[in-house]
Design brief:
The chain is an alpha+beta fold. Helices cover 29% and strands 37% of the residues.
């Protein structure tokens, strides 16, 4: 206030300003000059806070990462024969089952080709039967000495030639039948159909580079994530003892999806120093979707009797993490701590606290070391 009055240059107010400044200085010397900042706040009254005792409990030790979901199987559906699409049997984005009709290519040319192949095969079978009858007649004549062996051999060769032609035409029938079957394009797997790339009425060619549609299988679904190479040995050790649980948490999810670790890559990425893992999830509620980013948590083991506090009780300063501990005289102490793993809303305290010490969970922003506090259930939230 004294500075403000001096800046206005009001002569009549200057003595009062000097008096006020002197009184303020005297007040500071008498009550707070030798006290820490917390005591000065204490002069304004105790700070309302909420507290929680440090407690021992079982805590899951997890490795956290960021991953992405990917389909357990992806099939790019392509035509196997050339022709015109005459029907589309599904909706874009709809679920499909293995065997469902996706597209129909005009079958008429292939049906005609099958009929022609069948007719050719019947002709060859008739010729084979005729050749066998002739060969049998000449065999009888040979046995009776009426024809030479060379004459009979010619008819025997005719039988073999006719039999080969019949087998070839039979193969042509099977090929034509397959070609006709290929005009009906079916879903190869259960999953969800993507965007239709080729609409009804368009001409398609066998094995075009662009697929007609892509089907993704999401039951089950995979989540791919990477962990530091330093934890690889621990992952392998605990996996050898039994399945390891993986949690995947999509953005804004109400609850994590739970699955199991099914894959460890066979090499560490030297560029990042990480190794790729995969978790598999049933995904019956479709909570995970291919390409979606998720928070991935791999549970290694459960740590018994771990000392924990709520995660929001831990503050970060220039020298690292710390908590405010409420002492018996209702003052607070700033206590540096060393943290372990995090399990949900709680964090493990490796060093700096003992069980049952009371730590401040809300109201930390108004605290300094030595400040007096009052514990309230309705204290302010930091």
């Amino acid at each position: 206030m004294g500075v403000l009055f001096a800046a206005t240059r009001n002569p009549s107010a200057e003595p009062a300003a000097k008096t006020s400044s002197a009184e303020a200085s005297a007040g500071k010397r008498g009550s707070g000059a030798a006290q820490p900042g917390g005591a000065r706040r204490g002069a304004q009254g105790p700070v309302p806070v909420r507290i929680v005792p440090a407690a021992r409990q079982a805590v899951a030790v997890r490795v956290q990462s960021v991953g992405s979901a990917e389909a357990s199987a992806t099939v790019a559906v392509k035509a196997r024969v050339d022709g015109q699409i005459v029907d589309v049997g599904f909706r874009e984005g709809a679920p499909v089952r293995a065997g469902d009709v996706l597209f129909v290519i005009d079958p008429r040319p292939f049906s005609a080709a099958l009929h022609q192949a069948q007719a050719n095969h019947q002709r060859d079978l008739a010729q084979l039967a005729q050749a066998r009858r002739q060969e049998a007649r000449y065999l009888d004549l040979l046995e009776r000495g009426f024809v030479s062996k060379e004459a009979h051999a010619q008819f025997r060769t005719g039988v073999e030639t006719a039999a080969a032609a019949a087998r070839a035409s039979e193969a042509q029938v099977e090929t034509a039948r397959l070609q006709l079957e290929y005009t009906t394009i079916r879903a190869p797997i259960d999953g969800y159909a993507g965007r239709i790339q080729v609409q009804k009425g368009n001409l398609v060619k066998a094995n075009d580079a662009a697929p007609l549609v892509v089907v993704n299988q999401v039951h089950p679904i995979l989540v791919v994530f990477s962990v530091p190479e330093q934890v690889l040995a621990s992952v392998r050790t605990h996996l050898a003892a039994g399945p390891l649980e993986v949690e995947a948490v999509p953005q804004n999810a109400k609850a994590p999806a739970r699955g199991a670790l099914v894959f460890i890559d066979n090499a560490v990425d030297p560029a990042t120093g990480t190794i790729k893992l995969k978790g598999q999830f049933d995904n019956r509620d479709d909570a995970l979707w291919p390409g979606q980013f998720v928070s991935a948590r791999l549970k290694l083991y459960e740590q018994k009797d771990a000392l924990t506090v709520p995660a929001h009780a831990v503050q970060t300063g220039p020298k690292g993490q710390y908590v405010f501990v409420v002492k018996t005289d209702q003052s607070v102490e700033l206590r540096p701590v060393r943290l372990g793993s995090t399990d949900g809303d709680h964090v493990v305290i490796v060093q700096g606290l003992v069980a049952d010490e009371k730590v401040v969970t809300h109201g930390q922003l108004r605290l300094t070391p030595g400040a007096k506090v009052v514990v309230r259930d309705d204290g302010p939230r930091s």
